[in-house]
Amino acid sequence: MPRTPFLAGNWKMYKTGAEAVSFIESARPLLAGATGRQAAVAVPFTALAETAKAAAGSGILVGAQNIHWEKEGAYTGEISAGMAKAAGASFVILGHSERRQFFGDTDEWVSKKLQAAISESLIPVVCLGESLSQRESGDTFKVLGAQIKGSLAGLSEAQAASLIIAYEPVWAIGTGKTATAAQAQEVHAFLRGELKTLLGAKTSDSTRILYGGSVKPDNVKSLMAEPDIDGALVGGAALKPDSFAQIVKFDF
Ligand code: 13P
């Protein structure tokens, strides 16, 4: 089954609604004619509605960066999957390493958020990644194996139809240190194998696995040339329309 490349910006805590609309207006003509791929931006909650409205008809998917797993309740400061969806999100990033590191997200929370996302038909982008010390101590595969198993706990094959995984080595995020294409491919192949064990060959073949961590216009092509790298999740280089468009159009 062909896996359509998914090139997504993760804006993190950047851009107001007005700034987001201006980004979309600039990116729209730059992306015209970029077929055979999906462009996407994950925006702050406060910019969701305006960005989704501005992006209508542009082919750019708009998503959220987190959700709570409950539908509603006394959870001050939280946003449910249904709320994100109603504001215009089509997809959601789950378990980003910054959430795991600074806000206490665990594999168990990610598995609950995953169920909530799927119940609202939000495309889930589940993030996994090892730290520098885990890599240096030779624990990369052990850590990632536990993360994928825990984060996808309770997920059925049918529910996995829209699943996207993002491999983001923590040591490569915002550091300018990209994993080499070969290092990333090695991990992506491992994760595809884990998907096969957990959810079967069909899911393993059809699930897109994105790479994230210092992806830039000048390294995206070599990463995308690897057989198990199906897209990118991009922080810093996705904040400007021109570099985002260059990444989306990696093979133009
Ligand atoms: P950078 O592209 O800025 O390294 O960020 C990667 C990331 O965390 C995307 O989710």
Mean pLDDT: 97
Strand residues, percent: 15-25%
Order of strands, widest sheet: 1-2-3-4-5-6-7-8
What's the level 1 CATH class? Alpha Beta
- Dominant shape: globular
Task: List the ligand species.
Answer: 1,3-dihydroxyacetonephosphate
Are there runs of 5+ residues with pLDDT below 50, and where? none
Estimated structural class:
alpha/beta
Q: What is the overall number of helices?
A: 11
Distance between the termini: 23 Å
From the 3D coordinates, which CATH architecture would you assign? Alpha-Beta Barrel
Record field, number of beta strands: 8
Q: What Rg do the Cα atoms give?
A: 17 Å
Assign the CATH topology: TIM Barrel
- Order of helix and strand elements from N to C terminus: EHEHEHEHHEHHEHHEHEH
Helix content: 40-55%
Q: In summary, what is this structure?
A:
This protein is α/β, with parallel strands linked by helices. 41% of the residues lie in helices and 15% in strands.
Please give a structural write-up:
With 252 residues, the chain is α/β, with parallel strands linked by helices. It has one domain: Alpha-Beta Barrel (TIM Barrel), CATH 3.20.20. It is built from 11 helices and 8 strands. It has an 8-stranded parallel barrel, surrounded by 5 helices. Strand 7, helix 10 and strand 8 form a beta-alpha-beta unit. The two termini are 23 Å apart. The structure holds 1,3-dihydroxyacetonephosphate. 1,3-dihydroxyacetonephosphate binds next to strand 8.
